Amino acid sequence: MTTDTTTKDTAPGATAPGETVLDARGVTMRFGGLTAVRGVDLTVNAGEIVGLIGPNGAGKTTFFNCLTGLYVPTEGEVRYKGNVLPPKSFKVTAAGIARTFQNIRLFANMTVLENVLVGRHTRTKEGFWSAVLRGPGFHKAEKASRDRAMELLRFVGLDHKSEHLARNLPYGEQRKLEIARALASEPGLLLLDEPTAGMNPQETRTTEELVFAIRDMGIAVLVIEHDMRFIFNLCDRVAVLVQGEKLVEGDSATVQGDERVVAAYLGEPFEDAPGAEEVAEVEAAEAHAEAAEAHAETAEPDAEAAEAAETAETDADTTADAADTTTDAAPGKENDR
Ligand SMILES: Nc1ncnc2c1ncn2[C@@H]1O[C@H](COP(=O)(O)OP(=O)(O)OP(=O)(O)O)[C@@H](O)[C@H]1O
Ligand SMILES: [Mg+2]
Known about the structure:
Layout lengths: L19 E12 L2 E12 L3 E5 L6 H8 L7 E6 L2 E2 L4 H7 L1 E3 L12 H8 L8 H6 L2 H21 L14 H13 L5 E5 L7 H16 L3 E5 L3 H7 L2 E6 L2 E6 L1 H5 L2 H8 L9 H24 L4 H26 L8
């Protein structure tokens, strides 16, 4: 099986060169007391492949959900080709943004072809009565939809499996089917959430070619991935999210050369790190408490010897606590899913 990524046809939803496709400004998403995304700005221009990376729990998928109407951002604004997006998923898809999901969402008991046909529903103009009466207009539209769906399956290399049930496809092919279904809505921007998760190196390479081919059809791409080789090979620009905030954005060399990015992935603290203010406050409070304790000890010299053993014990506890805190402070560790 090979992927037919040789097509140079322009996609129906293609964007004019130079146009800003996506313009997200100050996007913030809070869940109760947790701020999952904080004041993120991001643009994607026509012809670009932009990467979004960051440790587990950094807020990448939440940000995607804010772009696609699944969540209404607590603050901020998202524009697609200059227009503010409506806060409903199907309206966002109709506007021209399509996506795939980190946890594959296919209709498992439908065929491969039917899954792609479902993806076309925002683009079919035949109305309710046409579908009920099944007149010539309906049959013509249905044939056009099937032809387009088969074309997309050929594009991702799954046309020979069009009649298979989606649930019988291997994992890597299910991810490609999700891409075909997303393309069926004829988008101008495609959002991919971890498109190579669970793929072998060969499948990852094919997916890389597929994404370049999608870009060449005039569809801009924003992609989340943990596979750094994939991201840095593919992307014109990469933005790094850490604890909900955009830490760095730039070309591959800029991002790879930024030591804060490495530190964030390793969970090491660094100056001005997102969340660093809160950590500093906690440290200051702890230092203050320690100073007060030392002062109390000095005031009661007689008790010094008796307390020595206890202090040693407390120190051991504090060291253990500090070790725990370091682990917890590693961005996203508690959200490792
Ligand atoms: N619906 C929700 N309600 C409450 N908290 C949520 C919700 N969705 C996400 N979160 C929290 O928001 C934070 C960001 O999660 P998100 O899934 O966006 O991270 P991610 O960067 O996509 O991580 P990963 O790389 O593991 O997929 C996490 O702390 C997560 O638990
Ligand atoms: Mg995610």
